[in-house]
Amino acid sequence: MNALDIYQQALNAVSQTVLNGDFDGYARRIDLPYLIHTETARLLVTSGDDLRPTFDTLHQTLKDLNVTHYERVAREAEYVDCDRIEGWHHTHLISHGERVACPHASRHAIVRRGEVWLFSEAHYQIRADRWPITRDVLLAQFGRRLSPRDLT
Q1: Confidence check: pLDDT of 66 > 70
Q2: Which one of 7, 32, 51, 97 has the fewest CB atoms closer than 10 angstroms to its CB?
């Protein structure tokens, strides 16, 4: 299988766990320690317990925005080693066929552990200097603020 297909399948699997609120499924797809690069910091997540708050915040934010499709579309990916793929993608947030926010780009590295590809490293275009990532940081990345209408 080519690198782009593997990267896209990994994105699809993790996106679905986030949308469904399936933390255990999400955590099984992350290789710890997990390195996150932001515009302002390099953050290292070392445990599943440390993953949980940001996962919950992302899931709840998507739910509050009525996101029905959390689509991450791989644009490019390549093997940089036989067990490591680096790629980038656009993220689309869609609610019942309508765009919720403008697409944004992110990059990830996935690594093969046995027969499974896990997320090992992420590059996000966000201004965050600490973990966990907050709702305000996510909304800024999405180019959104929640209005009372979003919460109904």
Answers
A1: yes
A2: 97
CA distance 27 to 99: 28
Helix (H, G, I), strand (E, B) or coil at 56: helix
Look at the chain and report how many structural domains it folds into.
Answer: 1
**Residue 70: inside a domain:** yes
pLDDT digits (tens, 9 = 90+) for 7-35: 999 999 999 999 999 999 999 999 999 99
- CATH number of the domain encompassing residue 35: 3.10.450.50
Q: How far apart are CA 91 and CA 103, in angstroms?
A: 5
Q: Which residues neighbour 64 within 8 Å (Cβ) at sequence distance 6 or greater?
A: 146, 150, 151
> Do 61 and 150 contact (CB within 8 A), yes or no?
no
Question: Whole-angstrom Cα distance, residue 100 to residue 103?
Answer: 9
Residue 50 lies in a domain: yes
Whole-structure pTM value: 0.89
Q: Containing domain of residue 98, as a range?
A: 3-145
138 within some domain: yes
- Does any domain span residue 151? no
141 near 104, Cβ under 8 Å? yes
